[in-house]
Amino acid sequence: MDLYGKMAATQDAKGKGEGGDQNFDYMFKLLIIGNSSVGKTSFLFRYADDAFTSAFVSTVGIDFKVKTVYKNDKRIKLQIWDTAGQERYRTITTAYYRGAMGFILMYDITNEESFGAVQDWATQIKTYSWDNAQVVLAGNKCDMEEERVVSVDSGRLLAEQLGFEFFETSAKDNVNVKQTFERLVDLICDKMSESLDTDPAVTTGGPTAKLSDSAPPLQQQGCNC
Amino acid sequence: MDVSSNGSSSIKPQTNPFVNSKLMSSLRASLQKGAIPVSSSNEGSPRPNIFSTLWRPNISNTDDFIPLYSDCIAKACSRTQEYLLFKDPEDKFHPSPEVLTQIFLMTYIGQSLNLNMTDNFNCTVMTPEQRILLGADWVWAVLEKPTKNPRIQIVVQVLHMPDREGIAEDYPPEGRTESLQMAQKESSNKTVCERMVDFCASIGKDCYALFLFLGRKNDTGKIYGVLSNNFQAAVGKCDKIDRDLIENFFKGSRYLHTPTGMLQTITTKKDEEPLTVLIKFN
After folding, report:
1. Predicted local confidence at residue B61, as pLDDT
2. What strand order describes the sheet that includes B138-143?
3. Which residues sit opposite A68 in a β-bridge?
4. Which residues in chain A are closer than 8 Å to B8, comparing Cβ atoms?
5. pLDDT tens sequence across B25-75
6. Chain A within 8 Å of B181 (Cβ-Cβ)?
7. pLDDT of res. B62
8. DSSP A211
9. What pTM value is reported for the model?
10. Is there a cis peptide before residue B146, judged by omega within 30 degrees of 0?
């Protein structure tokens, strides 16, 4: 993704803003994926705007929000893409997987079908994203205990099998929403540091070097976050 | 507004032979003219047989929204036209393109809620970021029952008279500016028309792009449209897809659909068939 390439490679962009807020140390591109109606948009609204509405509006295509977080005195800008879960939008949504550093793969604990589709979504990530993308599995709507059909253990086991972190969440009651994003950011930072240790060559790029779409979108100077 | 249910798996539209038949099209047309409806299976019979009675609710359910849609459009066009034609004696009131779009859309939505038609045909308004990324102002969808997943979509972009484009919009809230600029950067290599055409093409032939003209040269108070599921055929053949190219469709055009005709045409069309129609909305 060209935007990501430019922005992510621009570490310490303070004071270089050409309009808009480019005052950040790192930019991470994150995607929320999963079946339709599992609560992806509500989850993002809760995190970005601390708001929730029970009215359901099916997302058309793709949308995004920006949120800035701080970690170890570093300012990290999160560009969080909210994807439509319906099959008819699959072509456009998968086009945005490229360059994503992290995914929140969401299912609905009251909907068995959405849980059954997790494996397929994981395959989509492998197919359209890069190998080092970090994934957190989120079982949303945990406030609806009476309608639960997917146990916590089933969710945890599947996450282990897939090598993902796991949270049960509720956008409605604001349970584990912030924690899910924070954990994903931690995982991305850890992976970046790890990659730096094993491949010092990644540090040789200049601060304005452009990252290709196919290459792992690591920060050129590594991550101290 | 949209109330679709779950399911990432594809659900093929159910084909209703009554809906797809030419006979039904002509029946609907005659109904519109106020003709007495005649069941296809009991022509000449004084009473409908049991089968035609059983089928009737399906036919009715499928197309119930079309006259309601027509009513909503009539209201929205009428309201918008007042603003399009209004001349402020003091020359101070110049509604921006954004304001005109909102007048049309809000009048439409208000009426569609009054008529309770959103279970069959809904309208999803794009966020400011989506308007840039996808090039769409809103999306109309014919919904499939019982899933309420879209069966047919009409992705709408409003085109304004060129002399209105210079009128300043309200400045977006500060926090929003950043995300809008990001969206612009994401899509900077294509015109807004091209973005919408690409988006529709990515979905398939059951997704139509509708360019809605709020006024045209020499006809500033009228609302026209060009609808197609095949605009992408122009990609590569033309320098770019923009207002001028779209407006060219009207040159030499002999037939303009009504909003009702537009919906009847797309709901009875065969799958995967390319279709382009011109519409006069008021």
Report:
1. 53
2. B121-125, B138-143, B150-160, B207-216, B219-228, B276-280
3. A77
4. 35-36, 85-87, 117, 120
5. 333 333 333 222 333 333 333 444 555 444 444 444 567 899 999 999 999
6. yes
7. 60
8. P
9. 0.80
10. yes
